[in-house]
Amino acid sequence: MAKVTYRGILTFEDIWPYRGDFDMNDVVVKYVSTVGYNQKNEVIQTEDVYTILWSGAAYNNSFAYQLDAMRSEVNVTFSSSLGGDGGAFVDQTLDKATIRLANKVLDYANQEEKGSFTVTTKYTGRRIAKDDFTLPPYNPFITTTSDDKEVHLTNMRPTERLDHGNLGHGHDQSDPNKNLYYITYDEEGQQMPFAINLVFESDEVMNTFIVPFCDPLRESKRIDIFYPSFLNWVKTNGKEDSDWYLHPRK
Fold it and tell me: Could you read off the pLDDT of 127-158 as tens digits, one per residue?
């Protein structure tokens, strides 16, 4: 079995569909994922380790992710540093395989020993070619004040459970007819994300990442104050300053 490893850090704003303070630290999750392929370059198994790094939120949010596969097509097992499966489970109410990992993040976030979940997923049904596979971190999201209020990465589709009344409501500029999701703008008209996926080439570099404004006395300040190159990265659609998260303000 050929294996490829992906790693990164996810950051979320939880006030959606309103723009919030853009400090991007309401939920911060690290992932290290290994995808296994057979000789035909079809996905046969993934092993994903998700670690809850931080929660700077008032809400007791939950973290989950959805695969681009039906629940009947996969076999999922869990282990956790919290003991047993740590309360993780596959949502039996959704047809697509949806992995609910960290329920009530505030209950164990911000501890010296971080809570982590190891998820092994075996693809037992339809074979998915490497080029057609949605790579880690798949479709990650948080739920906020209710399970039907989800925050995803920009232009990632919500699950079937989402209350669609929130799309295009408040400051959200989603337009499902154009496949546009989770888009907003700041007060100056600059497009901003509700969630970010930061990709790293090694564990060593990833472990140097500093969560923006994790000091409670400095909460609610925009991420571009802590990471000065962030705004140019957004303005250029990622063409410039793609490593902005490696350069915090000194």
Answer: 999 999 999 999 999 999 889 999 999 999 99
Per-residue exposure over 50-72, b if at least 16 CB sit within 10 Å of its own CB, e if not: bbbbbbbbebebbbbbbbebebe
State whether residue 141 is helix, strand or coil.
strand
pLDDT band at 214; cut points 50, 70, 90: low
Cα separation of 82 and 222, whole Å? 32
pTM of the shown model: 0.94
Q: Are 55 and 118 in contact (CB under 8 A)?
A: no
Give the closest residue to 140 by CA, choosing from 38, 43, 12.
Answer: 12
- The position carrying tokens 């490829």 is 4
Mean pLDDT of the chain: 92
Cβ-based neighbours of 170, under 8 Å, separated by 6 or more: 16, 17, 18, 19
Is 50 exceeded by the pLDDT of residue 217? no
Question: Is the torsion defined by CA of 243, 232, 56, 46 positive or negative?
Answer: negative
Q: Which tokens is 11 given?
A: 């950051």
As a whole number of angstroms, the distance between CA 214 and CA 27 comes to 11
